[in-house]
Amino acid sequence: MRTYLVTGGAGFIGSNYIHYMFQKYGDEIRIINVDALTYAGNLENLKEVEGRNNYTFVKADICDKEAISRIFTENEIDRVVHFAAESHVDRSIKNPEVFVQTNVLGTAVMLNCARAAWENPDGTYKEGKKFLHVSTDEVYGSLPEDGGYFYETTPYAPHSPYSASKASSDLLVKAYMDTYHFPANITNCSNNYGPYQFPEKLIPLIINNALQGKKLPVYGDGKNVRDWLYVEDHAKAIDLVQEKGRLFETYNIGGHNEKQNIEIIHIILDTLQEMLPENDPRKEHINEGLITYVQDRKGHDRRYAIAPDKIKAEIGWMPETMFKEGIRRTIGWFFEHEEWMKNVTSGDYQKYYEDMYQGR
Ligand code: NAD
Ligand code: DAU
User: Fold this and answer.
1) Is the sign of the CA dihedral 158, 80, 123, 107 positive or negative?
2) Long-range contacts of 64-72 (CB under 8 A, 24+ apart)
3) Ligand 1 and 232: CB distance under 6 A
4) Ligand 2, residues 87, 149, 188, 202: which to mutate, most atoms within 8 A of Cβ?
5) Which of 55, 140, 162, 176 is catalytic?
6) Does the N-terminal or the C-terminal CB of the chain have fewer CB atoms within 10 Å?
7) Whose CA is nearest to atom 28 of ligand 1?
8) DSSP per-residue letters across 57-68
């Protein structure tokens, strides 16, 4: 039975990936999820899997060498899927250091521990061992509004402390592949959306605020473009890269779904109106009047757009979920999980929201 070590599995994409993997492989695989449970990690995301015999949760920081190396000595790990990171650009602008700590040093610890466990004395590696580093399209910088795409060969040009820390972690993984022939892949994906996304990110924040009749903060002119991908499609791509991809390669993953932020907000408002029952009192306040233009993000990248040509040609992966369907599924999920939203927005979230948006 193959054993996966997933880092950051209690976060948004990691928890969706774990659900996807158990749906696909059932009892054929074992998953160990290591997560420090920062503000972004939530074991409620994994309630349905916690009773499984082939699932184990370990609370640990990926920067803690002893804790991570213990996982490797106590278990025969076959695959690492490395999600754990500080992931929010606005937080990185306010407090960059923790991004360097987790995203760069944490990745170095993961690489060192995996290499120590997997490398043979002659420099080869034990059969079938693979490390997948989950990264972002933001490492490529910003595209002009009128054209161009990010390819795997696009030079790195990160702008935010977040993207600079992810770029650094990617370069470390590349250095391990080049120097030690370490068996890894890197994936660089565009913006994800879907169930379990923390409401600091655009889509869940807008859904939550609109339902509560709160202002919908739009940075700058609202015309920045992102390339949105339904999270389950990302989970599928990650699995396929480990199953069918060529080792040592980078694969870009994207939704072929570019939208301006302001378009996203209009789609969410329209979809909420369509999906809420006729007599729901919230329908009264869900309208464009909530849209509020606020001060722009510092160093705000204008446009991201991925060319997923390589992953399509080599592995046959393509985004399957159309945005109209994905956003309905996401909103439907938030309707059914009001308690989840209440829990994650109580306590510290209120302070975060005030610090980030008051006077903006
Ligand atoms: P998230 O913030 O929702 O989750 C991050 C998880 O990592 C949380 O569970 C958190 O507790 C855990 N974590 C943070 N620091 C840790 C540490 N020091 N030790 C152990 N665990 C720690 O993030 P996400 O949106 O799910 O993103 C996951 C990965 O995918 C990240 O590497 C991110 O850069 C990348 N990515 C995200 C997107 C996106 O749109 N969200 C797109 C492309 C790539
Ligand atoms: O591109 C992949 C990246 O996508 C991931 O690597 C990051 O982890 C993830 O957070 C995301 O980064 P973005 O900065 O693109 O996502 P965010 O949801 O924070 O913002 C999306 C766009 O919406 C961006 O142009 C900023 C804008 N925005 C965001 C918020 C939170 C607003 O206009 N208002 C807001 O309140």
Assistant:
1) positive
2) 64/109, 65/109, 65/112, 65/113, 67/34, 68/34, 68/109, 68/110, 68/113, 69/113, 69/116, 69/117, 71/5, 71/32, 71/34, 71/113, 72/5, 72/113, 72/114, 72/116, 72/117
3) no
4) 202
5) 162
6) N
7) 83
8) EEE--TT-HHHH
Angle (nearest 5°) at CA 121 between 117 and 123: 85
pLDDT by residue (tens digit) across 55-114? 999 999 999 999 999 999 999 999 999 999 999 999 999 999 999 999 999 999 999 999
Rounded to an integer, the average pLDDT of 280-301 is 98
Contact yes or no for 274/118 (Cβ under 8 A): no
Residues with CB under 6 A from ligand 2: 87-89, 136-138, 190-191, 201-202, 205, 217-219, 224, 226, 261, 297, 304
Asked if 162 is an active-site residue, the reply is yes
Which amino acid belongs to residue 127? E
Three-state DSSP at 143 gives coil
Backbone φ, ψ for residue 157 (5° rounding): -150, 60
CA 220-224-230 angle, to 5 degrees, is 130
Tokens of 72: 């490797």
Return the closest-CA partner of residue 207 out of 15, 335, 318. Answer: 335
User: Helices 348-357 and 338-345: crossing angle, nearest 10°?
Assistant: 70
Nearest CA, atom 41, ligand 1? 192
* CA-proximal residue: ligand 1, atom 4 (nearest): 11
pLDDT of 359 strictly over 90: no
E strand or H helix at 35, and its extent?
strand 29-35
For 246, counting Cβ atoms within 10 Å of its Cβ (0-12 exposed, 13-18 middle, 19+ buried), the class is exposed
